[in-house]
Amino acid sequence: MRAELWIPGPTEVREDILAAMAEPMIGHRSAEMRELIHALDPHLEALFGASAPSHRVAVHSCTATGLMEMALRATGRRVLCLVNGAFSKRFATIAEALGKEVVRIESAAGARPDLAAARQRLSNEAFDAVTVCLSETSTGVAVSPAEISLALGERGSAMLLVDAVTYLGAAPINASTNGLDFVLAGTQKALALPPGLGLYAVSAAMLSGAAAARDRGFFLDLIRITEAHADGRPPMTPTISLHRALLRQLEDISTGEVELGLTDEDPADLGGLDGWQRRYRRHARMRDMTGGFLAARGLAPLGGGPASPSVTCAAVGGRDVPALLRGMLDRGFQLASGYGDLRDSTIRIGHMGDHGLGALAGLLAALGAELDAD
Ligand SMILES: Cc1ncc(COP(=O)(O)O)c(C=O)c1O
User: Fold this and answer.
1) Domain boundary among 191, 224, 251
2) Is 122 a domain residue?
3) 90, 93, 165, 242, best to mutate for ligand 1 pocket (most atoms within 8 Å of CB)
4) Residue 306: how many CB atoms within 10 A of its CB?
């Protein structure tokens, strides 16, 4: 039996999306490819809450890590990094690898990013960029774009670079109204697609400032890739199948149809909501269902507050984590252990993408039975 993926990404991909990926290739310089790329934009604008004139959206044939590097290459030398887990730390590591002067504001794993300390630092010193992660996949701790915007609104000329890898598609971003300069994500999380395509929104201020950045490189040159996307002519052979899958999924989500099959709510109650609002609502409910299940067993999610809209990490009260995960595999569900130092004491559940509420109820029932059997 193949165990269903409930790890914090990649997640399950629907059959008809997989089928869209199996269609024959087209020339990447063809009119068809240009149409495909242009057709993505209105959906990406809705997804990021970002549109002209303040922002542009684009895709690039690389994973999210490539976009982290792209953003840092396009900004200046001094970078303030809010680090509260393995993925927010990656931003700092990449900045150091690029030879930047990096100041880290560290919080313990499982804590929220220290926005107050960052605000303080930004009011005293000049930085070229600030990095922050909306949903720290290693701990399930989230911070909303609005909170970040409020705390870091006054940051001089520092560009605000935001990792939304396990947030985009699960909760609203509103990049334009929140004044986020660069928001990045991949495809394999709440959008329920295979990995391999990076998605981003970039502010006009960041794009114009990037002209002065000397080490933008070629493959990760923010200006080159953003312009090429606008033309529908990527400078390298793009991941054509993934572009197709992305368009298919964005179209399916935006009609609201996908959600009807994934929720237990009466369609009449969802009538006033567009496809994205329905998706965000289901993700919030999945987070709350998971949190409620854990709380009822005295196993609170890390972070103390509501968990990420797509990942919950919970201490399992001294249970043998590998044995618990093996038991869940036997029951048909693949969960993840904690990350790094949390590996032996926590599990992570990826309640994201196209997993429905009924399916989550099944997973939690199996987890309950496994915990009881232990
Ligand atoms: C929060 C976060 N940032 C960045 C990444 C890196 O993404 P990728 O492995 O697609 O490059 C991940 C991957 O899980 C992530 O969860």
Assistant:
1) 251
2) yes
3) 165
4) 16
Mutate to test the pocket of ligand 1, among 89, 137, 310, 348 (most ligand atoms within 8 A of CB): 137
The pairing of strands 333-334 and 4-5 is: parallel
Task: Kindly list the strands in the beta sheet with 336-337, ordered across the sheet, starting from the edge strand earlier in the chain.
Answer: 311-315, 346-350, 336-337
| CATH code of 357's domain | 3.90.1150.10
> pLDDT tens track of the chain, all 374 residues?
799 999 999 999 999 999 999 999 999 999 999 999 999 999 999 999 999 999 999 999 999 999 999 999 999 999 999 999 999 999 999 999 999 999 999 999 899 999 999 999 999 999 999 999 999 999 999 999 999 999 999 999 999 999 999 999 999 999 999 999 999 999 999 999 999 999 999 999 999 999 999 999 999 999 999 999 999 999 999 999 999 999 999 999 999 889 999 999 888 888 889 999 999 999 999 999 999 999 999 988 888 767 899 999 999 988 999 999 999 999 999 999 999 889 999 999 999 999 999 999 999 999 999 999 96
Q: Is the CB of 65 under 6 A from ligand 1?
A: yes
Range of the domain at 352: 4-10+261-373
How far, in Å, are 46, 137, 144, 251, 339 from residue 8 at the CA level?
A: 24, 7, 18, 24, 11
Ligand 1 site, residue 133, Cβ cutoff 6 A: yes
pTM metric for this prediction? 0.98
332: left (phi over 0), alpha (psi -120 to 50) or beta: left
